[in-house]
Amino acid sequence: MIRLLVADDHTIFREGLKHILEEHPDIVVSDEAGSGQEVLDKVWRNTYDMVLLDIGMPGAPAIEVLKRIKNERPRLPVLVLSMYPEDQYAVRFIKAGASGYLTKEGAPDELITAIRKITAGRKYITPSVAERLADEVEPDSGKPIHHALSDREYEVFRLIASGMTVSEIADALFLSVKTISTYRSRILEKMKMRTNAELIHYALKHRVFE
């Protein structure tokens, strides 16, 4: 029996996911969580065979939650479920320790296959993600500038490019305004830009939000 912790802040999505999984007797949703902190609290207290982790829950960014899980429970596999296309986040999450990355638009059969493969001790990597991982070992020349950003910097960059203010980003990430301002300065320096408008233009040009 594969025991799952399903982490997503949308109750309707969790219910739909449970409906899909209950058709497979070897898989059971043994627990649920609606925020990053709740995920961590339950992982510390209970035993699961895998965590299904949504990328967009409130609280700490999902990649930080993933890193803390892998630090404390290195053998606990995590499959990331996301509304974002693979080209935006998949490589970052795989490199941070995720055993797989699936978009929520994927077919239910693919999810079941991923769960079984990962809990059998393997990774679930789609061909497009495998190609991007291969690109990571190539020299940096020719890669988009934003690939040089750290995971946290990339998160802040996306939020700035979406039009959020420093104060709004600080509230969303539970960080201080000063900390976000520091990240903004680093991002501008690394990307050789001076204004938020330039970041927004870059994000649109490179289809960061598609």
Summary?
The chain has ten helices and five strands.
Distance between the first and last residues' Cα: 37 Å
Uncertain runs: none
Share of β-strand residues: 5-15%
Rg from alpha-carbon coordinates: 18 Å
Contiguous helical run count: 10
CATH fold name of the largest domain, please?
A: Rossmann fold
Give the integer mean of the pLDDT values: 86
Give the biggest beta sheet: 5 strands, parallel
Under CATH, the homologous superfamily of the largest domain reads: Response regulator
Report the strand count: 5
The residue fraction in helices comes out at: 40-55%
* Major sheet: arrangement of strands: 2-1-3-4-5
Give a description of the structure:
There is one protein chain. With 210 residues, the chain is α/β, with parallel strands linked by helices. The protein folds into 2 domains: 2-136, 3-Layer(aba) Sandwich (Rossmann fold); 145-205, Orthogonal Bundle (Arc Repressor Mutant, subunit A), CATH 1.10.10. The protein is built from 10 helices and 5 strands, in the order E-H-E-H-E-H-E-H-E-H-H-H-H-H-H. It has a 5-stranded parallel beta sheet with strand order 2-1-3-4-5, sandwiched between helices. Helix 3 (62-72) links the parallel strand 3 (50-54) and strand 4. The model has no long low-confidence stretch (mean pLDDT 86).
